[in-house]
User: Fold this.
Amino acid sequence: MGMTMTNMHHLGSLQGQGRVLRSKGMKPRAMGYFYKEIVQAILLYGSETWVVSDSHLKQFRSFHSRVGRHLTGRHIRQLKDGSWFVPPTVDILENAGLQTIDEYIRRRRQTVRSFTRHRPLYEACRRSTALATNTNKAVWWQLEV
Assistant:
């Protein structure tokens, strides 16, 4: 997919930053801004050219929702009657000032597409044919934006 262990290592080193931000009384939207500018830059580095499988997209969505719950303090929890309270993801993302992870990936792809669209390499890629061994493999220039 393109997501490397380096990306995950850098994310792990940022975990303490969230504690610092919360201890300083930062509001969820301010922490959301930090997440978008720092964490997503690492998490989605190179995603413009990834072909993201459904299972990977599900993992990204889950992580993104967990971040939103963490930023807003609205966690999934078991109620006294044994049922579970699951705060709506739409509300959590809005409270943290976030869009869906799908939207952030789309924006990154659109940025690269805008840059490459009128370059000779892009047209050469679009006119190319797949090798016999890769006929079913998706490539970045065929991805939806």
About this structure: Helices lie at 5-13, 15-23, 28-43, 54-72, 89-95, 101-116, 120-127. The chain has a mean pLDDT of 79. The first strand starts at residue 77 and ends at 78. The longest helix spans residues 54-72.
